[in-house]
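Pasting as-is:
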Amino acid sequence: MKINSNTKIIGRNVILVPYRKHHVTKYHNWMKSEELQKLTASQPLSLEQEYAMQRSWREDEDKCTFIILDKNHFDTNNDEIEAMIGDTNIFITDKDNSVGEIEIMIAEQSARQKKLGWESVILMLLYGVKFINIKCFEAKISFHNDVSIKMFSKLGFVEKSRSEVFEEITLEKIMSEDWEEWLQNEIKWEIKDY
């Protein structure tokens, strides 16, 4: 999405940066993992296909993605590739009703269970509300991804539907001022030019 192509979101422990060409090789290596493929319901892509996907996420007006950097790691060595730990994105599924599907992936094992995913998804939710005008969020999660199901439930998402065929649960959260205020109180953030 062009709206975020020059946007950097800085939180306490993570930095979200636009998905650029120089991130693709590491991202592609992550997605060779069968575990990540299963958890994210993804199919492996060739490196060429991954570059095409990166261009699509940058150009398409219904897709917004950020690469997640470990802020402490980045502040120490100033190397985005070394600091990369995952990604988060919103795919607009219903423009007329401002519905967006949100996704989060912490690919680096060493970055899991440190609340970095929690902070990243809250930053992305707030970005979606304030800059993309999302009114309703959905999260489609594999039945096998208990960590994500628990996290989104803790964020106030409720079950909307289940697909036995795809082994996925769809959770939903309708935007409200109270919820936005709660999200704001959970984190500290600033937006800068990238």
